[in-house]
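Private note to self, pasted from the team thread so I don't lose it. Backbone tokens:
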């Protein structure tokens, strides 16, 4: 199975220049590219590949920043032999076929190399992100890691049998190989700590907590378009380092760099497998000796009812509706009708009588305060008589609130307890009861009507007197 990697860049010319290099390969190799060809372009001998792609880049809109999508395939020696010219041709054919299928209608440069440190065959595929015909960019799925991996395996199967590698699960670095000679390797130490934490864990939370206990910190990185989910491990316990070789920077390692078995999916397969490392007879003895007690169900503790947050605007709207509900009981007691109070303005138009509305609200408030106190004394809450949908919508329960208010109005008056006379106490004003409050409302309204009636009669008398004098006052 070829190793695959994909990146994107906004500097297409530099990406192509990197493929060419300075003519010589890495690690002292005489040649940089064994085979280099173009897809959807003229040969480089006619016009350089970068110039041909530049003609398309010039037509891209300003918001189209990406110029090149870079794909890399690396093959094991069992798949493609770097010393066999036919295998180099196969690598070029694989790269060209991949470019045509993953990005139809796009230009691409395919370069076959084996100048790396391991000398393995690998292919660089630089695909122009802008389609030649209309400069349309590649779809996101074209540079997703999983799409690239599946498409690469599908094409490679047509040329050879995939090599999954026996040691692919556990990669050994140069320092780990040196540890075989007796030297300390922090990566080898890190792997042992990770493995120990995994087999004793039951879930991700226990695994991360177990790592902390053995001196390892792990950070989960979520899957992206180009890389599956992985861990970043950090060795925080330096006690095993030689005194003269303490690390100068953090000991960090990505899980896929350590090997496939250290990735999250493989780690989860190891959860709870610690018993697999004990002899079968010991496991049987432990199973008989250990009897886990059945946990008793915990008594449910009732959670205190939390008050919902309500905005000031919702409170005001709720109060205006409450005034209407309470007023239907209070206002008739004062001799007022339930119609909206109106007055004439200078133009003779009917407008709201704001003063009368404020007076009626105050009448409701005078009744409302003792009503709330009565509810509190009974262990009830006014919230039971409201519907709170959310912080912006609060409504009174009309029928329920009216019934409760009527019940309060029908309650017999409580007689105040006579207090012993005391010379050092100031006289206390008598408490105004509900009936007294209603009587005062009726009396104030009657006085107001009497004043209006006197003013009306006086005005009518003056008009009749003026009419009897005639137009000239005679």
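Design output:
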């Amino acid at each position: 199975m070829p190793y695959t990697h994909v990146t994107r860049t906004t500097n297409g010319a530099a990406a192509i220049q990197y493929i060419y290099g300075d003519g010589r390969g890495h690690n002292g190799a005489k040649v940089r590219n064994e085979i280099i060809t173009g897809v959807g372009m003229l040969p480089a001998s006619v016009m350089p590949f970068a110039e041909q792609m530049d003609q398309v880049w010039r037509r891209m809109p300003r918001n189209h920043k990406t110029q090149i999508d870079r794909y890399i395939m690396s093959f094991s020696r069992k798949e493609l032999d770097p010393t066999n010219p036919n295998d180099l041709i196969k690598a070029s054919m694989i790269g060209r076929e991949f470019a045509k299928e993953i990005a139809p209608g796009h230009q691409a440069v395919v370069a076959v190399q084996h100048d790396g440190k391991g000398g393995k065959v690998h292919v660089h595929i630089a695909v122009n992100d802008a389609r030649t015909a209309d400069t349309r960019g590649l779809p996101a799925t074209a540079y997703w890691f999983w799409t690239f991996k599946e498409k690469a395996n599908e094409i490679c199967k047509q040329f050879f049998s995939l090599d999954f590698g026996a040691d692919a699960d556990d990669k050994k670095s140069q320092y780990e190989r040196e540890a075989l000679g007796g030297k300390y390797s922090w990566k080898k130490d890190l792997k042992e700590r990770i493995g120990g934490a995994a087999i004793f864990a039951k879930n991700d939370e226990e695994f991360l907590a177990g790592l902390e206990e053995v001196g390892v910190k792990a950070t989960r990185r979520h899957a992206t378009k180009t890389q599956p989910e992985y861990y970043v491990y950090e060795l925080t316990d330096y006690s095993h380092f030689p005194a003269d070789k303490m690390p100068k920077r953090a000991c960090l390692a990505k899980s896929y760099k350590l090997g496939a078995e250290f990735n999250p999916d493989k780690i989860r397969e190891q959860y709870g497998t610690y018993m697999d490392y004990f002899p079968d007879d010991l496991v049987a003895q432990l199973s008989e000796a250990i009897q886990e007690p059945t946990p008793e169900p915990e008594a449910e503790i009732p959670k205190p009812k939390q008050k919902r947050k309500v905005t000031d605007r919702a409170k005001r709207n709720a109060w205006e509706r409450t005034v209407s509900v309470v007023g239907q009981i209070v206002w008739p007691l004062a001799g007022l009708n339930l119609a909206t109070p109106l007055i004439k303005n200078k133009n003779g138009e009917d407008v709201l009588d704001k003063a009368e509305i404020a007076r009626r609200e105050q009448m409701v408030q005078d009744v409302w305060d003792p009503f709330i106190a009565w509810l509190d004394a009974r262990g009830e809450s006014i919230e039971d008589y409201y519907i709170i949908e959310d912080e912006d919508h609060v409504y009174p329960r009309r029928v329920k609130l009216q019934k409760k208010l009527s019940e309060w109005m029908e309650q017999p008056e409580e007689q105040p307890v006579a207090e012993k006379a005391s010379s050092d106490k100031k006289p206390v004003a008598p408490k105004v009861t509900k009936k007294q409050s209603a009587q005062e409302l009726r009396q104030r309204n009657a006085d107001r009507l009497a004043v209006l009636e006197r003013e009306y009669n006086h005005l009518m008398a003056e008009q009749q007197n003026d009419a009897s004098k005639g137009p000239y006052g005679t």
